Amino acid sequence: MVRRDEVTEAAWERIAPLLPVSAGRGGRWKDHRQVLNAIVWKLRTGAPWRDIPDRYGSWKTAHERLRRWSADGTWDRILEHVQVHDDAVGEIEWTFHVDSSVVRAHQHAAGARRPQAATKGAASISAAPRVRASRSLRSMKRSGGPGAG
C-alpha cells in the first residue's frame, strides 16, 4: 500500500522512463523511486533535509539527486511530459492567481547608509559656511553694511 505522501503506481509508470539511467562511474544509484519519495516528502512538509524519515534512505542522497536532476533538466522534462499529457487528456485546469499583497518597510529602511568619509566631509563643509555666513550678515547689519564705518 502506498502512503499518501508517496508517488502512486500510475504516476511512477509515467515518470520512471524520464529519469536518468545509472551514472556508470561510482557504482549504481539507489532506487529512484525511494529517492523521489524522499524529495516529495521533503518538499511537501517543508522540513529540514536531515529530518527525512529513515524509510527513504539518506537525506544526502535525496538532496544530491534533487540538485543533479535540477541541473541536468530532468525536472523540466518530467514537468513538460506531465503537462502535455494531462492537457491533451483535459485533466489540467489552467488557473492563475496573482498576489497583490503590500509589504511596508519601516521609515528608517527608506535609504541606504552613506559611507562614513562622505558623511563627515559633507557635514563639516555644509554646516561651517552657513554659520560663518549668518555671522557675517549679522555683523554687516549692525555696522550698516559693507564698507560703512
Describe the structure.
This protein has 149 residues and is mainly α. It has a domain of 81 residues. Helix content is 53%, strand content 0%. The chain is built from 5 helices and no strands. Helix 2 packs across helix 3. The longest helix is centred in the last third of the chain and has 28 residues. The chain is extended and about 60 Å long. This is Insertion element IS402-like domain-containing protein. It comes from Cryptosporangium arvum DSM 44712. Pfam families: DUF4096.
Overview in brief:
The protein has 149 residues and is mainly α. The chain has helices spanning 9-15, 32-45, 59-72, 74-89, 116-143.
Measured as a percent range, the helix fraction is: 40-55%
- N-to-C order of helices and strands: HHHHH
Q: Total number of β-strand segments? A: 0
| Low-confidence residue ranges | none
Shape by Cα distribution: extended
Distance between the termini: 108 Å
Radius of gyration: 34 Å
List the SSEs and their pairings:
Elements: H1 9-15, H2 32-45, H3 59-72, H4 74-89, H5 116-143
Helix pairs in contact: 2-3
Keywords:
extended; 149 residues
